TrEMBL record:
<dbReference type="InterPro" id="IPR008136">
    <property type="entry name" value="CinA_C"/>
</dbReference>
<protein>
    <recommendedName>
        <fullName>Putative competence-damage inducible protein</fullName>
    </recommendedName>
</protein>
<dbReference type="Pfam" id="PF02464">
    <property type="entry name" value="CinA"/>
</dbReference>
<comment type="similarity">
    <text>Belongs to the CinA family.</text>
</comment>
<dbReference type="InterPro" id="IPR036653">
    <property type="entry name" value="CinA-like_C"/>
</dbReference>
<dbReference type="Pfam" id="PF00994">
    <property type="entry name" value="MoCF_biosynth"/>
</dbReference>
<dbReference type="Pfam" id="PF18146">
    <property type="entry name" value="CinA_KH"/>
</dbReference>
<dbReference type="InterPro" id="IPR050101">
    <property type="entry name" value="CinA"/>
</dbReference>
<dbReference type="InterPro" id="IPR036425">
    <property type="entry name" value="MoaB/Mog-like_dom_sf"/>
</dbReference>
<dbReference type="InterPro" id="IPR008135">
    <property type="entry name" value="Competence-induced_CinA"/>
</dbReference>
<dbReference type="InterPro" id="IPR001453">
    <property type="entry name" value="MoaB/Mog_dom"/>
</dbReference>
<feature type="domain" description="MoaB/Mog">
    <location>
        <begin position="4"/>
        <end position="172"/>
    </location>
</feature>
<dbReference type="InterPro" id="IPR041424">
    <property type="entry name" value="CinA_KH"/>
</dbReference>
Length: 413
């Protein structure tokens, strides 16, 4: 089955709203083994909407639309689909009753134009009743073509797809598709692909797809089978081979992130930590704070941006700063040791660098960063040379600091 996703709404075209629905639906359809060849955004214009839907059906078996199901005159997704299928729209009393109850429950007054939302296809339609808003969705199927129309707000789109559209589409599929993810740190996408190219080339089912996210690389392993259990069994040996090849670079599986993994390791190991940041300005500390309960082990985070702050708060020696400058291996070491000592933490992490855009020299260019890790009296400092804009350098440095911390915690375990 080939699919196209159409987002309806001028506000998306103008950039006022981010089209997160398309990302969500693409991932969900991929899990079902349904190929998405096109994603389209069209404004609230009757002619352009009609042209878009009719063109989409010329190249796809399935269309999923979001938006354009509201009560106003320019909400015409349903009407346009009905025209394509030659369907008459009639009032659905159940849908109308649910809309009326929604307005009563929320203490708002229902206007006459809201009745428009309760109009549904007379024959070839399935009404998707909305538990999170007013507009019901609709599935229409005729002559081998399917359109699933969903409301625009993500809080309505996602549950409606998950609970009603997804089961409908699953029944259409002979096979099930299952994906598992390996998350890889400190190895770029091209380098990772080179390391595992022979494994990728040898696969037909499961398939392996590498791609990059900011600061990490991803391997998605997807199997096609008659059941989820069979698919997972096909994936298992391939995943094991990839993990053996990539070793410690694989930091997690599934939908997670580096800060979650590190926070869990700190809590499980009951390791207290303090962080001293310069160029990253608190990004490492902020990332850890995202994890609930981290206050049990995160004692403090310091942004020691100036030399005076490094000396006063962390005990960095003036002679070290004078001799090596603030962006140096030696200062990073004293920062990590100082923050651990002054806070009483068992682990100290430090970052110092040049994020730019100015301030670099030939000897110490923009993008030069030193990350220090102090654990149980031992300090290691790692040098990185990043490229990119200021915030890209800062974010990459924060991610790599967390990755170095992860590896240090693994060594301690």
């Amino acid at each position: 089955m080939k699919a196209e996703i159409i987002a309806v709404g001028t506000e998306i075209l103008l950039g006022d709203i981010l089209n997160t629905n398309a990302q969500y639906l693409s991932k969900e359809l991929a899990q079902l083994g349904i190929e998405v060849y096109f994603q389209t955004v069209v404004g609230d214009n009757p002619k352009r909407l009609k042209d878009t839907i009719f063109q989409a059906f010329s190249r796809a078996d399935l269309i999923i639309t979001t938006g354009g199901l509201g009560p106003t005159e320019d909400d015409l997704t349903k009407e346009t689909a009905a025209e394509y299928f030659g369907e008459e729209l009639v009032l659905d009393e159940r849908a109308l009753g649910r809309i009326q109850k929604y307005f009563k429950r929320t203490g708002r007054t229902m206007t006459e134009n809201n009745r428009k939302q309760a109009m549904v296809p007379k024959e070839h339609g399935i009404v998707l009743y909305n538990d999170n808003g007013t507009a019901p969705g609709i599935i229409m199927e005729k002559n081998g073509k399917i359109i699933a129309m969903l409301p625009g707000p993500p809080k309505e789109t996602m549950p409606m797809f998950e609970n009603q559209v997804k089961p409908y589409l699953q029944k259409k599929q002979e096979y099930t598709f299952v994906s598992e993810i390996l998350r890889v740190a400190s190895v770029g996408e091209s380098a990772m692909e080179t390391l595992v190219k022979d494994i990728i080339d040898a696969q037909t089912n499961p398939t392996i797809a590498p791609y990059a996210k900011y600061g990490e690389s991803i391997l998605r392993i997807t199997a096609k089978a008659k059941s989820e259990e069979e698919a997972h069994a096909l994936i298992a040996p391939v995943k094991a081979a990839l993990k053996e090849r990539l070793g410690n670079a694989v930091y997690a599986e599934g939908e997670t992130n580096m800060q979650t993994v590190v926070a869990q390791m700190l809590l499980e190991g009951k390791k207290t930590i303090a962080v001293a940041e310069s160029c990253t300005g608190g990004l490492v500390t902020s990332a850890l704070v995202e994890y609930p309960g981290i206050s049990e082990v995160l004692l403090e985070g310091c942004v020691t941006y100036t030399n005076e702050a490094k000396m006063r708060r962390l005990g960095v020696k003036a002679e070290t700063l004078d001799k090596y400058t603030a962006v140096s291996r030696e200062v990073a070491a004293e920062m990590a040791e100082g923050v651990a000592k002054t806070s009483g933490a068992s682990i100290g992490v430090s970052i110092t660098g040049i994020a730019g855009p100015g301030g670099g020299t030939e000897e110490k260019p923009v993008g030069l960063v030193y990350i220090g890790i102090h654990v149980n009296g031992k300090t290691t400092v790692t040098e990185y040379r990043y490229t990119g804009k200021r915030n890209q350098i800062r974010e990459r440095a924060a991610f790599y600091a967390l990755d170095l911390l992860r590896k240090a915690l693994q060594d301690e375990a």
